[in-house]
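SAMPLE LOG
Freezer: B-3
Tube label: C17
Construct: single chain, 332 aa
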Amino acid sequence: MSRLHHVNIAHSETIGRALRLDTIETIGVSSQTLAEEAIIEGQAALAAALIRYYHTEMRIMHNIMRTWIQDTIRYIIVKSGSGDNPATIAAAGIMRTFDQYPIGETERDQAVSALDRGDMANARFWLERMRLAFLNVHDILVAWMQNLLTFIAQEYQEPAVLETILHTHQDIWGDRYAAWDRMTPWEKVALTVEGMRGGHFSGIQRRGDVIVEDQGDRYMVAFDPCGSGGVLRRGDPETGRAPINVMLHGVNEEAHLWTWQKTGVHWYCSHCAIAMEWLPGRTRGYLLRPLDHTLDHGAPCPWYIYKEDRLIRDYHYPRTGQTKPIEPTAQG
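STRUCTURE (predicted):
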């Protein structure tokens, strides 16, 4: 029996746009893989919808990476002595091409046109070309971000990395997760998986395959590897490209609460500790989306979406210097 009946691209009122709200059977499967299956099974309308959605997944993450780099360049320019307004203008100018270039749009349209003609071979060809159009740019942007943070740690000392992450937090994670507390647990899973699936090209094939498990009090979403920091650390399993050479200052040499009190954390990966644990624990009381980070580059990276904040397990808190909030007891 086809698994395509599990696919559900639906409008989410909470975040105001389409979101893949599949069941657990397919939520972690690449949109590209499901589109190919729909092409093979002759479900042209579903294939076209998945192709368009896959493009959207990739474009959203491209925009996030572009914004993150732009904000970080602005931070460096200000730190170098410029005023905020000229720094903002200069950073935007530097990143303009990444904002305007129509990545994958021709490939998307070619794939859908081929479907309309019944040319299934060309539909699959252009679908793969669309992935590669984004993937190659994505991996450069991730390496660029790692190198910018490395430069900041070298020039301004390690605490400046926390400062720049906080500098850009609202533009990246604050806006993306603004509706988090109004979302159902499964919507939270869907939004999380979307970012790491088509957005970051996780998994061995770099198509966006994610592990999703229901663990009772929480959902585990795991990446093997994560398509951003994981590929930086492990290397690219699709092409055999080596791990990035972090050299001096590419990882933290001092333990911080915002690096899980560890050393040897790639600067790119430090934003997970900051944005998902260190900062939300201090601003909302509860962690947002804790993870079990490991320095073993060959291990999967598991994140957790708890079905209720109060269920977040105690062990997540101390590593970023926090204590789980005490729930008030009911009065008789």
